[in-house]
Amino acid sequence: MDKLNNKIRGIIGNCSEAIWSVADIAYSDYKEVYTKAIVIAQSYNCFIINEAYDEEQYHQIMSVAKITINEKISRLSRLFSQYRIKNYIPAVTQSDESELVAPFSLKYAAVQAGLGWIGKNDVLVTKEFGPRVRLAAILLDYPLACGSPIGKSLCGPCRACVAACPWGLITGVNWELTTKRAELLDYQMCNKKRSEYVKHKSRKHTCGYCLLACPWGLNKR
Ligand code: SF4
Ligand code: SF4
Question: Relative to the CA of 193, which ligand 1 atom is closest?
Answer without folding.
Answer: 3
